[in-house]
Amino acid sequence: MSSINLPLVIWYNGILQLYLTMKKMTIVDKVAKRIKELRKMKHLSQELLAEKADLHPSLIGKMERAEINPTIASLEKISKAFNISLSEFFAFPGEKEISDVDVQILDKAVDILEQALEQARRIKKKFR
């Protein structure tokens, strides 16, 4: 990567990370993130969590990747494995709601940065 677009790429990656972090998450995404956060906080592998919760290890992985919509029964087992109540599980600490306007601003910023990055790539090709 040439120095002509390195700062732009770094800036773009930073904005993109902010965008992905702030973009409104579905409840399945929030649950996935919460399971993974709690599991790591408790220093448990997916396999050990599955064993403690009496669930299949692949199910834990699918939940953490938001590939499935977990049942309340599964979430209750997971909560018990973490020694917390379901209401504590759904507390989602640190969650911040953002407005639709914030999302629109981020969408526009990402579009502008993608265009700038593409323009930088075209300029780079000219100098090859």
Describe the protein in words.
The protein has seven helices and no strands. The protein is mainly α. The protein has two domains: 1-21 and 100-128; 25-97, 434 Repressor (Amino-terminal Domain). Helix 1 (6-22) runs antiparallel to helix 7 (100-126), helix 3 crosses helix 4 (57-64) and helix 3 (46-53) crosses helix 5. It is elongated and about 60 Å long. The mean pLDDT is 82.
Short précis:
This protein has 7 helices and no strands. The chain has about 130 residues and is an all-alpha fold. It has 2 domains: about 1-20 and about 100-128; about 25-95, 434 Repressor (Amino-terminal Domain).
Q: SSE order in H/E notation?
A: HHHHHHH
Care to count the β-strands?
0
Q: How many structural domains are formed by the residues?
A: 2
Radius of gyration: 20 Å
Biggest beta-sheet profile: none
What's the tally of helices?
7
The CATH architecture of the largest domain comes to Orthogonal Bundle
